[in-house]
Amino acid sequence: MVKNWLEMSSDSLSDFAARLGHWDAGDGPLYGRLAAALRRLLENGELRTGASLPPERLLAGALAVSRNTISAAYGELRRDGWVDSRRGSSTTVNSAGYSPVGAHVANGLFATLIRDNPDVIDLTIAVPQAAPIVTEVLSNPAAHIDDPTTLTAGHGYQPRGNPALRESIAAILTGNGLGTTPDELLITTGAQQGISLVARALLRSGDVVGIEEVSYPGAIDAVCNTGSRIVPLPLADLGVDVEALTAVVRRERPRLLYLVPTFHNPTGTALDGVPRKRLARLIAETETTTIDDVTLADLDFDQPAPPPLAALEPEAPVITIGSLSKVFWGGLRIGWVRARPAVISHLAGLKAASDLGGNSPSQTSAVAMLEHYEETRSWRKRQLGESLDALTTALKTRLPEWQWEAPLGGPHLWIRLPETDAAGFTQLALRSGIALVAGPLLAATTGVANDRIRIPYYLPGPELVTAVSCLETAWRSRGRSLDLRN
Ligand SMILES: Cc1ncc(COP(=O)(O)O)c(C=O)c1O
Fold first, then answer.
1. Domains and their CATH numbers in the chain
2. Is the pLDDT reported for residue 82 higher than 90?
3. DSSP line for 195-260
């Protein structure tokens, strides 16, 4: 970020102003709207610790407002602890001592979670409502749990997770062709904590990590927080480009690969057949520790999911990570890590140091829910299929110039817009009542996916159809809104 504004060209200042988007739209005093737009940049990690904000006078000129408006907006940020300013010197982003380990922090995941505006249809996060069995078990445990006193048995601290839950998950994985014993499993607070624990256990500042060039932002954040350097892995039609990945592995010797080869977030592709086998072989041969994130693998459409990488090469250093969030409910906060028992022990120690173990009643309840795993999974896939149909039919009619490849599974449609400023379009969409994620928020590097948006289709079809009509309004207003600004 810019350090000394007085030495910078006027281009930097107009860049900064452009990043504020349509900041002056909305209600309330002008300074409040400006403070809100600045806060968005801070929360997204676009303005990082130590960066200076433009001097009041210069920003007032660039935004064509009075200097008092800028002073009042900066004052609001100062009061809330976002920035520091000393008399006669610049206003800088405050770390309050909580600076991240790395030089850069992505924060894309956080940015997708922090919206809580009830007037907006939220298409930023791809998470489902609870499946009916979740509500049934939680509202009437006695009907589903043989001995409901087990919900509160013992002291309740289980850093490795509830033994019965580890057994149920091990049985499901084994049934699906990935032989697993309970001591190879750690129950985590969602797949997100599993990724985070592996990153913290393995990575040190400066380590190299290979991640698909667009990917799940929570993993990008977890890796960035360790100060590691991300090497983006190009994508081909079916998923990661294995030839390019091989070259990266041989050249950069990454400490870790993080991959979503089964119904990739956000592209919906699945690496199958020979390329998948070649990938597993490469990992085994080069002994490159690899996270195989199978969080979305339960959500196959026409063809069953290909086998997890660890099933193809049992001796390879693959850490498989999954979750109950996508079939059952994210609010359970139950994920799992499968690895060799020694790795699991190490990760359990790290987990204990951070939370002493997950939520015990949630895990006991999950054992009862997993008895209905297959039927719940079929139900979820049916719902997703219907929503995807409704979404794509509405898009084809109302926005025929938008393009996408049909996803093979998972909950995301990865749309290519016929122009490159997807981030700018998400600002317009927000004004039409739709919160969306633009490609750059999911990118492992700058300069990719600038023309992309991601639309999750967990919402019911009719809501998605309404969302598409708002998106059409926003899309058709582009030229007009530019005219207004000029
Ligand atoms: C690929 C992938 N991994 C992990 C997660 C996190 O899931 P959880 O809710 O289990 O933490 C998600 C959630 O969207 C995801 O898409």
1. 5-93 (1.10.10.10), 108-130+375-485 (3.90.1150.10), 156-371 (3.40.640.10)
2. no
3. HHHHHHHH--TT-EEEEESB--HHHHHHHHTTTPEEEEE-EETTEE-HHHHHHHHHHH--SEEEE-
